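Lab manual, section 2.4: Encoding a predicted structure.

Procedure: take the sequence of the chain (483 residues), apply the prediction step described in section 2.3, and record the output as structure tokens. A sample record is shown.
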Amino acid sequence: MNWTVIQRILGLLLMMFSLTMLPPVLISLIFADGSWLSFIEGFAITLIAGVVCWAPVHGSKNDLRLRDGFIIVAAFWTVLGTFGAAPLYFDNAVDLTFTDAVFESMSGLTTTGATILSGLDDLPKAILYYRQQLQWLGGMGIIVLAVAVLPMLGVGGMQLYRAETPGPVKDNKLTPRITETAKALWYVYLAFTISCAVAYMAAGMDWFDALCHAFSTVAIGGFSTHDLSMGYFNSTAVDVVAIIFMFAAGINFSLHFYAWRYVSIRHFSQDPEFRAYFLILATLSVFVVVVLFQFQYFDTPTDNIINGIFQAVSIGTTTGFTTDNFSNWPVALPVLLIIASFIGGSAGSTAGGIKVIRCLLIYKQGVREIARLVHPSAEIPVKLGNKAVPYRVVDAVWGFFSIYIVVFGVMMLAMMMTGVDQVTAFSAVAATLNNLGPGLGEVATGFMSLGDEAKWVAVVGMLLGRLEIFTLLVLITPTFWRN
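Recorded output:
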């Protein structure tokens, strides 16, 4: 293990991350909310920690290996979430404990959207902006951003990219060089963010709310600047804009890249994962709307349709925005929506969950096993489109799914051991492991009522979900540490 290289890169990345605490200072000065000092303090501490980490080993030029990449990804997300909590911890306006500050920071960075804050409408604008910015940076992954920057620092990035995106992610290399791939993805990401902000402003938001909600929409984060989330605006136009961009952000960004590069959308319909993604959200939306109509839950047909589709897309993509307290919706809708978050969005998107392509492969293998009962000697491949999927990939998907369920069960038991009831524990683990945000029971409106032990369980869940479990679990296996 190249510990000096790992230390050097962590130091460099911490120094770069410290710069992200400066834009909130400008926001604070613009709105004169008095919170600028906490961000200066957070910037100073993060910068100094980065320099202390980097300076002793700044001359190390050894090559970065795959195992080093796993350590950097896991360590940096953990360290980043901790240092990102500094401004929240120092600011008197929010008055958070260390646990609460780390929870909020980690929730933002992992694009989970779970919160322990209340009274958002009265908080300093700089704090509100900072939460949204954390989600935006975490949306495509700080490490992916670093892959585009690391070559300028003399470090290759392929190992980090592989560690960040385990599983059957299509089109890992959209362009010949990994740095160009990362830059291309960020150009698309930035274009989506700007388009979303402009659309929100056209729908009636002011520039601050439009920018903040564009950050969390494209990142599929779910943080809002208001306690009522999207329900605060009470606007059909705003809801429609959110639905469109949440749906788009849940699509594999490589498809967006190809659409931009070749000025064509034909490949969307040709992609098996996109077709499954669209079918799942469409079916879920129709079912939710039909049930809302049946119970006449909202006063008008338009409200039933818009709220039903909005909540289905928001929870199905693991965004977590709300226009209404869906935990009070009739019959099985609340649980159905939470279960939908387990599927999540597409691989290569900013969404959480197991990912559509994994669920699609599991379904196809199930169909194959049924066919084998009738034709036990037949060789029946699992196919995506016209291509047979290698057995190794199918095995990896089943391994991931199995570990996901085991981790979920262990975390739910751990949550219940802290004194939380079953419904709350189930939805709290689902909300954090799937990087969703809102839950049911005590966490329907936030995680502020949970004890510190339960919050730390939730923090671990956020990290596991964001790094797709294997990236962290591999670090505790003896095989990883053997030479």
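Check your result against the sample. Residues 145-162, 164-172 have pLDDT under 50 and may be disordered.
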